[in-house]
Amino acid sequence: MQADFSGTLLIDFVIAATLVEWAALSLLWHRKQRGLPPSSLTWMLLPGLCLMLSVRSALLGLPWYSVTALLLLAGLTHLMDLRRRWNR
């Protein structure tokens, strides 16, 4: 059981589940105009995806600057999402 969660398999599953969630909620919006618009969903989910990609990069042993760049991108996208919400 422990081998199933070693490496990046678990984080890959979470990333895939997040992308499926985004696609399903976007489809719901386009078909029934219910829920959040895809642009709001994108800005809401993007920081988390960047964080997951940074963890995946660290687990793969990629250079520190790629992990740092993804963490910086997560912070910037989070700030952009907050700014969009604050201005409403």
Oligomeric status: single chain
Q: List the total number of helices.
A: 3
Calculate the mean pLDDT score and round it.
91
Give the distance, in angstroms, between the N- and C-terminal Cα atoms.
Answer: 47 Å
> Which class best fits the helix and strand makeup?
mainly alpha
Gross morphology: flat
Q: Sketch the topology as an H/E string, one letter per element.
A: HHH
- Compute the CA-based radius of gyration: 15 Å
Q: Into which percentage range does the β-strand content fall?
A: under 5%
Strand count, sense and barrel status of the largest sheet are: none
Low-pLDDT windows of residues: none
DSSP E strands, number: 0
As a percent range, the share of helical residues equals: over 70%
From the structure above, extract its key features.
mainly alpha, 78% helix, single chain, 3 helices, 88 residues
